[in-house]
Design a protein that fits this description.
Largest sheet: 3 strands, mixed
Helix content: 55-70%
Number of helices: 13
Oligomer: single chain
Distance between the termini: 54 Å
Order of helices and strands: EHHEEHHHHHHHHEEHHEEH
Strand order of the largest sheet: 1-2-3
Strand content: 5-15%
Structural class: alpha+beta
């Protein structure tokens, strides 16, 4: 459905922890307990994905961790809707409600099929009691997200409330710090009480908080950079009436991999160096208009880098975005040069701050 599904490496590795907790003579039950956790996460994330679709939010990727998924949105409008107003409450409640509703259905089914199973016996989660764990894993995953630890659901609500007064970047850092503090407290409590579940919960909450913190930092950086600061202004263009042989000759003297194709001042297409070479080998000499791509997006000099990156990642195989002003191409941004431009911009800003301080 156009959403990238990623699984954090620690999630499948957690299966070995469950095997260790269950003992070598009961490894099948340890593996069963791991898949019960996978099922609880699947219920939670399916409910959140359906809620996101119902709210009209566009997702780019989902990263799965043992406590749930971290969403990456395809556009800033979706991200803003998910972090404010009724949208953030819907997204925060969808996961826990789905887990608790599933727990009730499972409990009714298990008790109806066999009244001899004690669902309220201790321990609630254990490899030796898989049917009981099937219910309580859903319950505890829902309860976990009531903790005010970011990036858990209730922590997201706190961040959203804080962001309305102090901005998203500052709110993200504050919520991440609180989440990491609570995760550390859970780790210490688990070690003192010899409770592996608290240790695992604290460990993975800390990982999730660090991932979100990096994402918030990256977002705060790219949303302060304008395209006029990183675009290439010294670039070559091609004409749709240029022959492929002439274009190849120009490619020899240029470091560009992709070229805007213009007719007068008007941008009409984009063509890559490799596409020119492939066409010459396959069909012989011809004209640029026969091989150029007419599917392209443009940006304006005042657009943020974050918005432009989303355009680059949204397009299939899109490697270049022309920067236009009043219908004229004034610069280009490509994947090839973006990291180099960002590095040089950071150095330029550092020197400017140093001169201002002096």
């Amino acid at each position: 459905m156009g959403v990238e599904l990623r699984v954090h490496l620690f999630f499948p590795l957690l299966a070995f922890v469950f095997l260790g907790l269950s003992g070598t003579d009961r490894w099948q039950r340890g593996l069963g307990l791991f898949f019960i956790l996978v099922a609880a996460v699947a219920v939670r994330e399916a409910a959140r994905l359906l809620t996101a679709a119902w709210l009209g939010l566009r997702l780019r990727a989902v990263l799965l961790l043992p406590f749930g998924g971290l969403f990456a949105y395809a556009n800033p409008e979706s991200q803003e809707s998910a972090n404010s107003g009724a949208g953030q409450f819907a997204m925060a409640l969808a996961g826990p409600l789905a887990n608790w509703a599933t727990a009730l259905v499972l409990a009714a089914a298990i008790l109806g099929a066999s009244g001899g199973i004690q669902l309220f016996g201790l321990p609630f989660l254990a490899a030796g009691h898989l049917l009981r764990s099937l219910v309580w894993m859903q319950v505890f995953l829902g309860l976990l997200h009531l903790l005010p630890a970011y990036p858990l659901d209730f922590g997201r609500l706190i961040r959203g409330s804080f962001a309305r007064d102090h901005g998203l970047a500052l709110a993200g850092r504050a919520a991440t710090g609180l989440g990491q503090a609570l995760a550390l407290a859970a780790l210490l409590a688990g070690l003192l009480l010899h409770n592996p579940w608290l240790i695992l919960a604290g460990f993975f909450i800390m990982i999730g908080a660090q991932i979100e913190d990096q994402g918030v930092f990256f977002q705060s950086v790219v949303d302060t950079v304008r395209m006029r600061e990183v675009m290439l202004t010294d670039f070559a263009t091609l004409s749709p009436s240029d022959t492929l042989a002439d274009a190849l000759a120009r490619c020899v003297h240029s470091l560009q991999e992709d070229f805007p194709v213009v007719r007068g001042p008007e941008l009409v297409g984009i063509v890559s160096r490799q596409r020119i070479v492939d066409a010459l080998r396959r069909e012989g000499n011809g004209y640029i208009q026969s091989v150029m791509s007419r599917a392209f997006q443009v940006a304006r000099p005042e657009d943020t880098l974050g918005a432009t990156i989303r355009r680059l990642t949204a397009g299939q195989g899109l490697a270049l975005i022309p920067i236009t002003e009043s219908g004229r191409v004034v610069g280009i941004v490509s994947v090839q040069n973006l990291m180099s431009s960002m590095s040089l911009l950071a150095e330029k800003r550092r020197l400017e701050r140093q001169e201002a301080a002096d």
